[in-house]
Amino acid sequence: MKVLSHETLPLRQPEDVVLVRNKVRNWMQEEGYRLIAQTRLATAVSELARNALDYGGGGVARLEKVQNGSREGIRVVIEDRGPGIADVEQAMRDGYTTGSGMGLGLGGARRLVDEFEIWSQPGQGTRVTIVQWR
Amino acid sequence: MTSEQANPIAQVLREHPQDLLEQWIQVQMDAPWVRLDLIGEAEIRAQSAELIELLGAACQSGNVSDIQADEWGRVRDFLRELSRSRATLGFSPTETAQFVLSFKMPLINMLRQASPSLDMQVWQTMWQASVLVDDLALYLLDVYMTSREQVIKRQQMELMELSTPVVQVWEGILVLPIIGTLDTARTQVVMENLLQAIVETASDIAIIDITGVPMVDTSVAQHLIKTVTAARLMGARCIVSGIRPQIAQTMVNLGVTFADITTRASLADALAYAFAQLNMRVTRNESS
Amino acid sequence: MEKIPILKLGDLLLVSIQVDMHDRLALALQDDLTGQVVKHKARGVLIDISALEIVDSFIGRMLSNIAAMTRTLGAETVVVGMRPAVAITIVELGMALNDVHTALNVEKGIALLESLIREREAVEAHEGPQP
Predict the structure, then answer these.
(1) Which chains does A contact via 3+ CB–CB distances below 8 A?
(2) Rounded (5°) CA angle A48-A18-A85
(3) Residue B143 CA neighbour count, 13 Å, CB half
(4) Please, what is the average pLDDT of chain B?
(5) Class of the domain covering B3-158
(6) Model pTM score
(7) Inter-chain contact A43–C93, Cβ cutoff 8 Å?
(8) Which CATH code, of 3.30.750.24, 3.40.50.720, 3.40.1260.20, 3.40.50.300, is assigned to B167-277?
(9) CA distance A87 to chain C (A)
């Protein structure tokens, strides 16, 4: 997969979540992605960015325009250096929450995007990579 | 040239298949277009070895120029299958063509070694010219395929839109008659169009009529349910009409229930229900 | 601090969300609305989200909470103007918002609120006022 351009944004406060998801939408709008794809990815990013902020103590979001052969897409990597998730499989299940949300964050985000990958190590942090193809 | 007098290509293929294979694998592995994300080295090796063997057999016939001839039937079959499988895997047309083109280097290398008297300078110039022409042809192929794909994509979209019109049958009532097979992609477009039409016409009720749908699988049923739920979130109600007995049976067998969804046997029943919901009544004029 | 304005119209409260909602703003609106329902003895709340391009699970939960809280306080809530792409996304996220009343636009929303309030008053007249 080739990265055509990228940008990294911080996640330190609730306003940053809005900034990041809007950036994703703007990118996709400029590139002419369908409205539904824009909404899906931006919503997934919103869920994951909130997780990084609320549970990971903040982090960064890296937005990338990528190309794989003739396919184009947007990849977003959201990373924190928080306590990590001990049982990733459990955390992916709907309704699982340790905080104030509905517990739909991870599982919900996965349903919204074309590709979803999670890495987490207790004590080291969590990194979620999602891709939406054109 | 006759078959008794062995052709150099046939000879190289017969005498050095292993060297050819190793060199060819090397070329493919080092190439910028190799797609190890789609196919493993072991498979590339197996396919390369098979093609060398088939080429060898075909060339033994003495015919090394007309690949449409009967002797080349197995090579053509092999390439047809390879092309089909690579297309499915997601290889581009040029990446697929590169597989065969990349065999030129090892083959010509072996031929050159077989004739040491050949002038290096001449050989290199010829090689350069040959690669240049290949690259130009591949570029042309790539551009051609891209523009053709765009045409196909546009036509697909147009067909999808054409095949499922959203009709406003009365103020506040939309009907979406679906005709033909529903696949996931089409269902998605159809449903998005319906929701958009609900907003544009401010319709309270949308009837999805699936009388003309021969089959519904689980993913299509899920999309139907999602659409009905999404319409509710927007403030409109959906009615699904025309569920044929076979479809109802399949859905029960699949474990899909339309429990929370209003359904009616026919479009007429759904329309009557919609009028009632909007406090409207259809009456017949008293004949005088 | 930024705040989402709440308009009072008879016994209804109207909110039109025109800004991108971050979580603190959503929580503030939730507090503010419930406070205003009590203060004005409102019978209905209308929330217009037609300007919202993204509704994630947090905002979805806020809408759900507001509906449940105002109901306890004697007011019905109707959410209007959800965009198609937002509705599809919410469904795929796994939220149904079954407890939230919805309408296509403000006009239909007010009509729905009025009928919900009438229904509720009829029930209350029959059963006596709720504790």
Answers:
(1) B, C
(2) 20
(3) 6
(4) 88
(5) mainly alpha
(6) 0.72
(7) yes
(8) 3.30.750.24
(9) 21
